[in-house]
Write a structure and sequence with these properties.
2 helices; four-stranded mixed β-sheet; single chain; 52% strand; Immunoglobulin-like; 18 strands; Lipocalin
Length: 267
């Protein structure tokens, strides 16, 4: 066989061998050729809100991406597919595990309710107390009905927003009837039991639609309790006097409040 032909045949064999050995070099991570000493799940999150989704990845002890088997221990709280994409479904504690061979890594997360929405629904004055016995019948008689609008922006466990409750006074002792709106700038947090805690400074909305907050806080949102079930919010709150030694308050009972799309803070 001519020397030149044998040389060309050797070159062709080398090229074919190189191409075969390089298959799978690009694209998604290949199956490991070694057992990694350890694994790390990314991102290292510990908190999600209902409705959040995130794609998890896993790397070995050298930082190389790995193809893993994914498991969610509580799929009713956090679903997880074969590619590591998770969706937060319900409040609760969750734990995910990534496995490569016999090596595993786990990550524990808490899924919290999604309060960051605009909530709207009925409200009613259930109690009123004032050192001036004429005040409650004239401005906040028990049984007065109205509408509560609660706008909350959620970032992690924290919330900020605004509250307004417009109610109708059917008849004062003087025979007057009118609509009035109480407003509040609110902030709060999600507690360990997933309930919502809100506080704030309260004011009033004038006849011209302008909001008025006293320079020195007079009325505070000093009490809030609520329960979230089936995407409906129920509860009560109080507008209390700034000075603790003056036990004056107006208490509203509200719900069910219905919500629209989520209002989330910057990530």
């Amino acid at each position: 066989m001519p020397l030149q032909f044998r040389a060309m045949k050797s070159v062709h064999a080398f090229v074919i061998t190189a191409l075969i050995s390089c298959l799978g070099c690009a694209g998604t991570p290949a199956s490991p050729t070694r057992t990694p000493a350890s694994l790390l799940i990314n991102p290292q999150l510990n908190l999600l809100s209902v409705g959040d989704s995130v794609s998890f990845t896993v790397a070995d002890d050298r930082g190389d991406p790995m193809t893993a088997t994914w498991i969610s221990e509580v799929p009713s709280v956090l679903s997880l597919d074969a590619r590591g994409r998770a969706i937060a479904l319900a409040p609760g504690q969750a734990r995910i595990t990534a496995s490569v061979g016999q090596t595993r890594a786990s990550l524990s997360l808490r899924v919290i309710p999604q309060y960051g929405r605009t909530w709207t629904g009925p409200a009613e004055i259930s109690a009123c107390k004032n050192y001036n016995f004429r005040t409650c019948p004239r401005s906040s008689p028990e049984g007065s009905k109205g509408t509560l609008v609660l706008r909350l922006v959620q970032e992690g466990l924290g919330l900020t927003g605004a509250l307004e409750v417009t109610y109708f006074v059917e008849k004062t002792p003087e025979g007057l009837s009118f609509h009035t709106t109480t407003i509040a700038k609110v902030s709060g947090t999600i507690l360990d039991d997933d309930h919502l805690l809100l506080t704030g400074t309260m004011g009033v909305r004038g006849p011209d639609g302008s909001d008025f907050y006293p320079q020195e806080p007079t009325w505070l949102l000093r009490y809030w309790t609520s329960n979230l079930a089936d995407q409906q919010l129920t509860g009560s709150f109080e507008r209390g006097y700034f000075y603790a030694d003056m036990d004056n308050f107006v208490r509203w009972t509200f719900g069910p409040l219905m919500s629209n799309t989520a209002l989330k803070g910057p990530s």
